[in-house]
Amino acid sequence: MPLPGARAAAQQAVKAASSSQAPSGSTAEVDEDAVLRTRFLSLTSSSRGVPIMDRLAKRFFTFATAVERSDEDAAKELYTQLVKDCAAVAFQLEQMEAKAEVLEKESDATGDVRSTLARRAEATQAEIESLKSELSRARRKRRRLEEYEGVRRLIVKEPPRSHTSQELSKLAEEVKTLQDEHESLLRAKEIRRKQFSLLLTTIENLTTDIGHDDHIMETNLDDNCS
């Protein structure tokens, strides 16, 4: 039974393919492989060691040749096989699409995981900064405690307050005694100064009187001699 639609498609494909075919069969196979590689490069899954797109293309060219030769029985059989191969390719494409969806979901999940890890990293960094600040405060507190401990040890080495108070009382009494002695010495010094001043005045007066008496005596002697 003739297949008008398939026949027209096959004839058009054969004309397009035959325009680039060489006279020899080996060259035609090479050109056919080149067409397959350029047009169906993304579908390279194989069945029984033969790439499915290569098998589909070869079957299509065989089907087109059978249609061109008006071999209806061979064309029907090849058509049935071609439909099966197309269904296999469609199934493979569906599998690839499903895999792509799975990969996309995994990529989204990976992005979510990365976002979660980034948030956790930020939270961890913030916690580290907080712990650094807390550690710095703890170090300052420890340094102050060590300073306080040093001062406490110095205080412990000093005598008790009662003993210090007694010593201060004794020192205060000694200072008061020294102040009293100092004031007494100042008064005695003032008295001695006044006495010495009086003595000097007396000596000066005596010297004046003696000089006056000597002058009188000399005057009397002169009078007696004359």
Automatic annotation (TrEMBL):
Residues 86-188 form a coiled coil. It comes from the Eukaryota. InterPro entries: THOC7/Mft1. One of its GO terms (biological process) is mRNA processing. Keywords: Coiled coil, Nucleus. It is found in: Nucleus. Residues 1-29 are annotated as: Disordered. Residues 1-22 have a biased composition (Low complexity). GO terms for cellular component: THO complex part of transcription export complex. Pfam families: THOC7 (PF05615). The keyword Coiled coil applies. This is THO complex subunit 7. It comes from Pycnococcus provasolii.
